[in-house]
## 1
Amino acid sequence: MAARVSSTCALFTEAVGAVLSSWPVLQIAVDNGFGGVYSQQKAEWMVDAVQQYFCDNSDLEQHEVEDFLSDLMNNEFDTVVDDGSLPQVAQKVCVMFQQCQQGKLAEVREHIHQLELKRATGRAKVTPVKAPTEEEEESGDDEESMEYDEAGAGASVSSAAVKDQQPPSATATEEEDDGWTVVRRKK
């Protein structure tokens, strides 16, 4: 009996790891060092923290898990998750915990496998744009591009196209007598 409980606990820990490592918000936070030099270690620690949270509180609701994950992201990575992914992540973890509790280990393993496949093929990647030098700005050379690549589908946008598509400025500036610039909205 004790061996089954420990294998279930280990499988749930693996499931939490799979869910969190496939979460784009956490990927971006780790890749960009939002948690400092120990971002990767914090992400690994989060897996254990979430697993422990479930073990200590077996009757958790999805909104409680959302709050816990939100607090972890805010405290450890200075990141506020507002992309709508938090309920989905919390639901996946809750479902896998229930499946582990019910002994549906094959289903949990299949979910883990699917998440690992998704993570291997769909890693979010952002390539920054190189800032133009003064010479390039003067010559009008706009060959830089910003690329966003997720799951192998890349979209490239020319910086000239972005400049043309931006809406006109909604603010007007004027210089005050004391040298300060006041920014006001147009009416």
Note: The first helix runs from residue 2 to 21.
## 2
Amino acid sequence: MYYKKMVGRKCYLSPINVDDYEKYTLWVNDMEVAVGMIFSASLITPAKEKRTLERLSETEFNFAIVDIEKDELIGNIGFPKLDYMNRVAELGIFIGNKDYWGKGYGTEAIHLLLDFGFNILNLHNIYLRVFSYNQPAISCYKKAGFKEAGRIRESKEIAGEKYDEIYMDVLTREFQPLYIKELVEKKK
């Protein structure tokens, strides 16, 4: 079961449902999905994935991404690192269901999480990391408002090729809120 915490036009963010561990296990062991992620070299069993989802569901700001029309899980998104003192967070996103790739779901989920981060958690800077070979992800992040902030050169090697790890970020003043602002206006 999913609960609509942050709602967009295509998808919504819900608390993570630990019972989805088998679906996640299929996704994280699919190399086409995993190659862009840090866990690509890991072997992930259902038991291990269930423990991961239990940990994520207990951590404050991790969400399932759910298709609004079909009520179907497509991935997850959240803040794996959060620095409350300096108001900075790292964003992580994972779209495991390949049927949803390249259709704007990731961009919308990012917008919803940015809205939550900037307007509810009062963050100032939200950043992420991506490997330079992952052009679809970089394009998605740019559409969501992220800009390149720096890179660690040749930090990832795959199939004999070296790639940069790119850091991208967005500041609160660069973000255009949608969902939270509308909710506040309705309360006035």
Note: The beta strands are 6-7, 11-15, 62-67, 72-83, 88-95, 125-131, 147-158, 161-171.
## 3
Amino acid sequence: MILDHIGFAVEDYEGAKAFYSAALKPLGISIVMEVQQEEHPGYRACGYGGPGGKPDFWLGAEGRTTPHVHVCFAAENRAAVEAFYKAAIAAGGRDNGPPGIRAHYHPNYYGAFVLDPEGHNIEAVCHTPE
């Protein structure tokens, strides 16, 4: 592991929370911490994490991040990649590459790409052959 956590600012904080909560649910990722302005004046953010409960991915309410970023989330299997893609599209994301093999990365790279409502490239990937 080379990163402890990552985050970026969004213009529509509540909309982003709704999108990411829906899109990441199939991957077992949910909000595990939220910082309110009362606790940290001028700052509002939420941290998403998996089963361990550590917030690894953060959204902040400071305004739009430009240029857009690319964030990739690990999926346990290919079915989870497909479920992520369907959930993200249903939550308002736009297709940026449907689930499938990306052999130019490696033979078992199975990923799906969605643009979030603010245009960030969000991906889920599974590296195993199942």
Note: The chain has one domain: 6-126.
